[in-house]
Amino acid sequence: MHRKVLLVLLLLLIVMLFPPLAQAVPVEPSSEWVHRDPDTGLLKVTQSTTAQYKTEFKAVNTRPEYNTVSRSANRPDVRKLLATAKSHLGQPYVYGSAGPSSFDCSGFTLYVFKKVGVNLPHLASAQAKYGSRIDKQDLRPGDLVFFSYHGSRNIEHVGIYVGNGEFIHASSSKGITVTPLAMGYYAKNYRGANRILPS
């Protein structure tokens, strides 16, 4: 009987000192259950236990969402981005390369954005999933511009808009170069733009 009284008093003390714990659901001790959602890329903790109690957690975003960037960017970042890009003018195109002495198209944008703290994948079509989709007439320096290859619908090429209707990119024939968006081939194969660094 004496033990039961002590147990009741102990439980009352826990309720008074740790009310959230009193509302937890008793479970067997176990480790966290973590998995990555294949559609959203979110790292989800579906269950975590502390001692004998379970707490539910919401999903944690482990990478930039499609319409945001996981950092605070400002215009100086855009100036640094463009200065970095232009500092590589004339360097050669090498398929699969991501700098610093040679690049392919997505390797170039990956390298330049990394210099301002933004990590992008090494594939033009994958980079098209980052940032906010914008209309052509709303382009600002620092935006990514995307292109297909000879009329296909797939995104096969990427560059960085520098203003005045031009973009800088790794051309397979010219290396790092600045090209007008209105140039025939690129105008015909333009497939949209994304803003990675908020203004």
Q: Outline the biggest β-sheet.
A: 6 strands, antiparallel
Spatial shape: elongated
Structural class of the secondary structure composition?
Answer: alpha+beta
Please identify which CATH superfamily of the largest domain we are dealing with.
endopeptidase domain like (from Nostoc punctiforme)
Overall number of strands: 10
The figure for the number of domains is 2
Secondary-structure arrangement, i.e. CATH architecture of the largest domain: Alpha-Beta Complex
**What is CATH's topology name of the largest domain?**
endopeptidase fold (from Nostoc punctiforme)
**Biggest sheet, strands in spatial order?**
5-10-6-7-8-9
Look at the structure and give the CATH class of the largest domain.
Alpha Beta
Quickly count the helices: 6
Order of SSEs:
HHEEEEHHHEEEEEHE
Helix content percent band: 25-40%
Mean of all residue-level pLDDT scores: 76
3D structure, described in words:
It is built from six helices and ten strands; from the N terminus they run H-H-E-E-E-E-H-H-H-E-E-E-E-E-H-E. The protein has 199 residues and is α+β, with helices and mostly antiparallel strands. It folds into two domains: 22-62, no CATH class; 75-195, endopeptidase domain like (from Nostoc punctiforme) (endopeptidase fold (from Nostoc punctiforme), Alpha-Beta Complex). It has a six-stranded antiparallel β-sheet. A four-stranded antiparallel β-sheet has the order 1-4-3-2, with no helix packed on it. Strand 7 and strand 8 (166-171) form a beta hairpin. Helix 3 (75-86) packs across helix 4 (105-114). It is elongated. The N and C termini lie far apart (70 Å). 22% of the residues are buried. The model is unreliable at 19-74 (pLDDT under 50).
